[in-house]
Amino acid sequence: MLQVLKDKFRSLFGKGTLEEHQIPIEENAVATNTRVVRLGESLVFAGKCHGSVGVRYCLDYLQDAFDAKKSFKYDRPEYSNPSSTIAAGGDSAILTYTLIPRRTGEFLVREISDFRGDQTVLRETTVLVVV
Q1: Which of 49, 70, 81, 93 could share a disulfide with 74, CB 3.0–4.6 Å?
Q2: pLDDT of residue 20
Q3: CATH 2.60.40.2020 fits domain 29-130
Q4: Is the distance from CB of 25 to CB of 5 less than 8 angstroms?
Q5: E strands of the chain, at which residues?
């Protein structure tokens, strides 16, 4: 299974690209799915962040194939007000990526959790963009 994913990634993005990303992939640990969207439709991905603890969420995708917008929503709305005083650790939030394809094709999007530099691929989505 792991070799199939590596071969698929290389066929999409060129030789050597997988190694350049340096994202560890554990066999059978990554959930995978496929989504078909029309050119111009939105794809939404969201994950948990907690900066004071060292938890980040990010996407790995071919950046020239998508327009991307990020939005950040704190679990405790008062945390987004810089003048408020709240207890430490109240900065947990949801980071949402909205991707809009720029061209047709097949692309790989990886959702990654980063805990103090230790990256784990949570999910891989093959996005098939059609007209």
Answers
A1: 93
A2: 47
A3: yes
A4: yes
A5: 31-38, 43-50, 55-60, 66-74, 92-101, 105-115, 118-130
